[in-house]
Amino acid sequence: MMGPLAVAQRYFDAWNRHAPDEILATFAEGGTYADPATDGDLTGPAIAGYAAGLISAFPDLSFKVVNAMPAGDGEGVAAEWRMRGTHRGPLQRLPPTGARVDLKGADFLAIEGEKIRSVRGYFDQQEFLRQLGLQVAVQPPPMGPVSFGTAVYTQPGNLARPGALSLTAITARSEEEVQQIGALSQKITEETLAMPGFISSLLAVVGRRMFTVTAWEDAEAPRRLLQQGTHRDAMRLFFGPDLSEGGQTGVWGPVRQNAMWVRCTACGRMVDVDRHAGACTCGAQLPEPPAYL
Description:
elongated; 13 strands; alpha+beta; Alpha-Beta Plaits
């Protein structure tokens, strides 16, 4: 009969073979997995799905067991490990960074015969994000009508005054869909960078609600987005059975656009950069103005 240490080694070997189904097969029926990134216990196919996501994000993923010993009543194992891998694919809401990760952690496995009853994994999540080169955003929980989230801004240097804004709001049905929509949005943004008339875009995620505000030189420019590439494919998914709870799109024109004001570094005065042709009333040259949006 296979002992607890051998069962644990079989589990880590399945990870190193990049085999999510084999990982799941090491668990007893109803067995659970949890670590700081899972937001609770996973069981059944969710374990394999989580493993597949991590392996997809780190195609060269490996776990080296540094130390393993019996724990608890002798039917458990405490295993110290070292995870290495290169971030090549999306990980939850995180785009690939290309960063190399070398992370220490520990798993505590409860063994039942030759199967795993539970795995509790522990690692420093902030250290993990630091190695990926990512900033950690601390957000409060929703407060009445106010919710908090994250945003990504893209501005390739086009300082034209916007002639139109396109707005998209979409509600995902699950965290997995948030990741799917985020990956589609990333590809759409990459494609819009090469489109005539594109000025900037702001992508925001608040829970399962996702918003995109894109600035264009005129109202005709965003029409090209509907006719080609990833945006067209995403709309087909949206109107099929495979994407989101619902959403809305639209193109908005300007009602009133006030002046772009720039502070003079010589005298400290705020100056209408267009009206004064880039020069302050004191005679000094004004700094380059920021983008309108």
